[in-house]
Amino acid sequence: MATVPTPHRTPLRRLSQGSLFRLSRSGAYPDAPHGLGFLEPALGELLDEAEALQSNVEGLRNLSDALSTFNESFASWLYVMNMNALTTDWPQAPTDASFVLAKRRAEQDAIAAMEALKAAELAQVTPPENSSVAEKTSYGSEVDGESTYGDSPNTISSTTTSAPPKGILKKKTTGKPKLTSKEKKERAISIERIVNSLPLEFRGNDPNLRRHIETVIEGFMDREGRGVGILELVKPPDLNQARVNKCLIALVNRKIIRKDNSTGAVLYHWHGLPE
């Protein structure tokens, strides 16, 4: 006898632990409402979470809008700066030719100042013609008084030209005073002390700057007791006016020299290293 096959049956689906139906029939909640009343508290919690989610999404959207505004503004600023750099010309900006021209002008000014200083020194050294003529006249009168009455004018003039007195028509020579070896040694020690009291750039590894400051200090020591102008210390082409001015600023700041412009001309007076 043939057996009748049993019909296929779908197994019952297990209830999930969080299902609303199980929640309504759970004994853990004896006070749970019957029917659809258990949906009220669950939907209330769902509403609260949905509102929190909405507020968070709104915050993210506001942040995105702020970042978009900032990015657009910053990009516009960068674009404007780039266009400004590409389109704006600066005709007054210095070029390489400007620096070469400035250096050439500084050298020309230094040479002109040195020539003017030499001309002034030569004018001080060379006596005027009137004084030399007066000296010759006075000397001739002295010889005339010492000569006898029988001497002729030719004899007097020959005597006058043959043996002129020493020192009357001789030019005065000015220059550095000759120093003994002891004085040179003492001056070198004094210069060394003064240079060591100056900033590091004057006593560092740059021998040219140290030589410049030593030359300026020697110029003050040679002219001690009077005011010294900046042009008197210029020695082109190595020691121009700009380098002398830099050395003078360092000495004034250290109070080794004093700047005075009360007479209308800028003069520097030597004080020496303060104790």
Automatic annotation (TrEMBL):
Residues 127-140, 149-163 have a biased composition (Polar residues). The keyword Transport does not apply. GO terms for cellular component: DASH complex; mitotic spindle polar microtubule; mitotic spindle pole body. Residues 124-183 are annotated as: Disordered. InterPro entries: DASH_Dam1. Keywords: Centromere, Chromosome, Chromosome partition, Cytoplasm, Cytoskeleton, Kinetochore, Microtubule, Nucleus. It is found in: Chromosome, Centromere, Kinetochore; Cytoplasm, Cytoskeleton, Spindle; Nucleus. GO terms for biological process: mitotic sister chromatid biorientation. Belongs to the DASH complex DAM1 family. This is DASH complex subunit DAM1.
